[in-house]
């Protein structure tokens, strides 16, 4: 049964395609015309991409796109950070496979992982070549990729041998790494300061997005709880905040933040332009996350809180152990949707004069040497954002199945 | 009874209005002594659930007083949590926590509220599950159990906090007929061991066999309180007769 299932699905898919595309003569003609148009467009695109487009603009500016005007003599700190990230990613990936939750796949190298590793390998080997990076940098990327795979393999193979008490602490590695990363990027603790005004490109975009994502989530949960609180002050405060933010376009809030935060805070405390923008992004996204979480809270039956309270759990414990786990599970897809918009919204930073990916791209295209290379640059930018969003989406799906192996719908199936 | 057992629930002239102005309880009294099983009956909407839920402060009330196990119910949150630790409650819809295994449903409150060591609580939880006859389901999730099994888990979950009083709000009303008996058997066993219980239920056989007294409520008032034999064989009030003729 199980082995023939995919065949059956494929056959019925073919039949359905046939029925939907060529059901009648008109349908058939329309389908053929559409397919021809698609084919022509695709061919045109490939002809352009392979023969006309000049990709040199990317290779020549690869450092600029990656880190902006980050001082060259300090860039080793970023390499170190990337190495640490690869190590942590590999370890987490391997441990996830060694301990696949109750719903996960029980295999050290499931087929999805072959794909992921293969795609990573192609990117790691081919991209540095395609971008004509210097040999030293090429070798660095290959080393980082090897480190990732090695960590993945080692954690998967030997993860079970780690005592449980240490393994429990492992997720703390990520917040720790975030702090280490902040120090490495901005300096301090004996490292030379690199002010935020010198961060740029992908570095700035990723930094802004992760900062806002990490902070807007707890803030959004608190706002959602506040909105359902019985204390009028808290409830109305949350409602007014959420509705005000959701009623204003982000770009106006960004400009407002750039101008107003400087007046509100005394000179020395006024955060740098970059941090101002980061806080505005955070406060903006929090309002939307709050609405996503609220929809999750509504989905939890009132009896759950009553049962928890009647067992003597005080309100905070009842929320943390009973209500929120259920609510957040429901709210997860919508919340990740907000994270994805947030990532895309970081492009607005270029409009308030920050050199994020888009801002960097615009300075590159304004350079007379690379005039008229807009299509190449924008295409790569779009692909970059798209892959980040796909990764977020896949991660959220994985989390959902990992959290939810025993949903009522799963049991009936 | 020579020395009368301690008074566990003492409700005097309790009146409640819902926020929409509905007068749900119109001066009800109830006294429950240690080891008693009081069964509350009455037509739907008569205020049985509302009354029961005032005993562990899931509902507030505006007039009268309620003393549970020596603690007067007031707005003091700490006192309310103290009362809830001593009073277990079983709901019509079970209200098990669907994201936790059966075992974790039982151990959550004792570990987090009473701060007891997890291993010890787990042993006790498995004992309780054994007693209600579902120890083999300990590592499943509530959604994988039948209604009768879920309600028995819910009872065990309450017992794991070692309460001195158990409240039941129509514990068998949401069950398929063939599962009612397994839940009633557990409750009967509990009563035999001397648990103080207040049960909202229309199970006449259970009331006849287990109840110390039967209370009939109608329109937010207590109409009749009597030992079960007297209540079912020789009801004193017109409203009681009318109700009994409807359910039999
Ligand atoms: N939250 C509420 N707001 C307003 N009226 C309510 C609320 N809950 C219950 N009631 C009303 O109070 C009365 C008693 O309800 P309840 O105690 O649930 O009755 P029973 O359990 O005896 O069926 C019913 O008429 C019901 O409509
Ligand atoms: Mg009721």
Topology diagram in text:
The complex is a heterodimer of chains A (413) and B (248).
Chain A: H1 5-22, H2 25-52, H3 56-60, H4 62-67, H5 76-98, H6 111-130, H7 135-158, H8 164-169, H9 173-186, H10 201-227, H11 232-247, H12 250-264, H13 273-299, H14 302-310, H15 315-345, H16 357-366, H17 374-403, H18 408-412
Chain B: E1 7-17, E2 23-33, E3 37-41, H1 48-54, E4 63-68, E5 71-72, H2 77-86, E6 87-90, H3 102-112, H4 118-131, H5 147-159, E7 165-169, H6 177-192, E8 196-200, H7 204-210, E9 213-218, E10 221-226, H8 228-233, H9 238-247
Parallel strand pairs in B: 3-8, 3-9, 6-7, 7-8
Antiparallel strand pairs in B: 1-2, 1-4, 4-5, 9-10
Bound molecules: adenosine-5'-diphosphate and magnesium ion (MG).
Beta fraction of chain A: under 5%
Largest interface, counted with CB-CB under 8 A? A-B, 22 and 27 residues
Number of helical elements of chain B: 9
Low-confidence stretches of chain B: none
Shape of chain A: globular
Q: Give the number of domains of chain A.
A: 2
CATH-defined architecture of the largest domain in chain A: Orthogonal Bundle
From the alpha carbons, calculate the radius of gyration of chain B and give it in angstroms.
18 Å
What percent of the residues of chain A sit in helical stretches (DSSP H or I)? over 70%
The overall strand count of chain A is 0
Output the radius of gyration of chain A. Answer: 25 Å
Which cofactor or ligand species appear?
adenosine-5'-diphosphate, magnesium ion
Strand arrangement across the biggest beta sheet of chain B:
6-7-8-3-9-10
How would you describe the shape of chain B? globular
Residue windows where pLDDT falls under 50 for at least 5 positions of chain A:
407-413
Spell the H/E element sequence of chain B: EEEHEEHEHHHEHEHEEHH
Output the structural class of chain B: alpha/beta
Order of helices and strands of chain A: HHHHHHHHHHHHHHHHHH
């Amino acid at each position: 049964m199980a082995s023939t299932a995919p065949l059956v699905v494929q056959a019925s898919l073919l039949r359905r395609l046939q029925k939907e595309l060529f059901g009648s003569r008109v349908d058939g003609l329309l389908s053929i015309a559409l397919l021809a148009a698609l084919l022509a467009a695709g061919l045109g695109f490939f002809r352009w991409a392979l023969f006309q487009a000049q990709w040199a603009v990317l290779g020549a500016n690869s450092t600029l796109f990656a880190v902006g005007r980050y001082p060259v003599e300090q860039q080793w700190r970023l390499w170190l950070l990337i190495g640490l990230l690869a190590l942590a990613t590999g370890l987490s990936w391997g441990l996830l496979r060694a301990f696949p939750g109750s719903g996960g796949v029980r295999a050290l190298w499931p087929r999805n992982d072959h794909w992921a590793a293969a795609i990573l390998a192609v990117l790691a080997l081919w991209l540095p070549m395609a971008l004509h990076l210097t040999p030293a940098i090429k070798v660095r990327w290959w080393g980082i990729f090897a480190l990732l795979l090695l960590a993945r393999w080692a954690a998967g193979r030997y993860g079970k041998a780690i005592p449980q008490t240490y393994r429990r602490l492992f997720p703390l590695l990520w917040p720790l790494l975030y702090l280490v990363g902040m120090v490495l990027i901005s300096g301090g603790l004996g490292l030379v300061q690199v002010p935020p005004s010198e961060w740029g490109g992908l570095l700035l975009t990723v930094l802004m997005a992760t900062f806002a994502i990490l902070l807007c989530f707890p803030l959004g949960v608190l706002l959602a709880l506040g909105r359902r609180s019985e204390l009028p002050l808290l409830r109305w405060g949350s409602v007014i905040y959420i509705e005000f933010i959701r009623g204003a376009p982000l770009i106006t809030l960004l400009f407002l933040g750039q101008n107003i935060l400087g007046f509100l805070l005394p000179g020395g405390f006024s955060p740098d332009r970059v941090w101002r923008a980061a806080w505005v992004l955070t406060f903006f996204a929090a309002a939307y996350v709050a609405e996503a979480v609220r929809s999750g809270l509504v989905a939890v039956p009132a009896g759950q809180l009553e049962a928890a309270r009647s067992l003597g759990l005080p309100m905070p414990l009842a929320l943390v152990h009973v209500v929120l786990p259920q609510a957040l599970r429901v709210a997860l897809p919508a919340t990740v949707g907000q994270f994805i918009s947030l990532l895309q919204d970081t492009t607005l930073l270029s409009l308030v004069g920050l050199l994020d990916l888009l801002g960097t791209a615009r300075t590159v295209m304004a350079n007379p040497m690379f005039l008229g290379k807009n299509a190449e640059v924008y295409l790569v930018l779009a692909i970059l954002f798209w892959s980040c969003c796909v990764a977020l989406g896949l991660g959220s799906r994985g989390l959902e199945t990992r959290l939810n192996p025993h949903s009522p719908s799963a049991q009936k199936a | 009874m020579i020395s009368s057992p301690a008074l566990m629930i003492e409700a005097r002239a309790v009146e409640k209005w819902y926020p929409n102005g509905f007068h749900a309880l119109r001066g009800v009294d109830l006294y429950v002594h240690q080891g008693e099983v009081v069964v509350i009956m009455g037509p739907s909407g008569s205020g049985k659930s509302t009354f029961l839920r005032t005993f562990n402060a899931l509902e507030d009330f505006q007039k009268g007083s309620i003393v549970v196990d020596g603690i007067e119910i007031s707005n003091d949150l700490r006192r309310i949590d103290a009362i809830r630790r001593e009073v277990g409650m079983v709901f019509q819809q079970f209200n098990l926590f669907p994201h936790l295994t059966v075992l974790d449903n039982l151990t959550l409150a004792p570990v987090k509220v009473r701060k007891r060591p997890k291993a010890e609580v787990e042993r006790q939880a498995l004992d309780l599950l054994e007693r209600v006859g579902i120890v083999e389901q300990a590592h499943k999730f509530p959604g994988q159990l039948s209604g009768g099994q879920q309600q028995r888990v819910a009872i065990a979950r309450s017992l794991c906090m070692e309460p001195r009083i158990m409240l039941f709000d129509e514990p068998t009303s949401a069950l398929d007929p063939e599962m009612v008996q397994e839940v009633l058997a557990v409750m009967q066993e509990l009563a035999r061991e001397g648990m103080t219980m207040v049960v909202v239920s229309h199970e006449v056989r259970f009331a006849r066999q287990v109840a110390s007294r039967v209370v009939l409520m109608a329109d937010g008032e207590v109409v009749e309180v009597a030992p079960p034999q007297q209540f079912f064989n020789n009801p004193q009030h017109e409203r009681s007769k009318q109700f009994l003729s409807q359910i039999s």
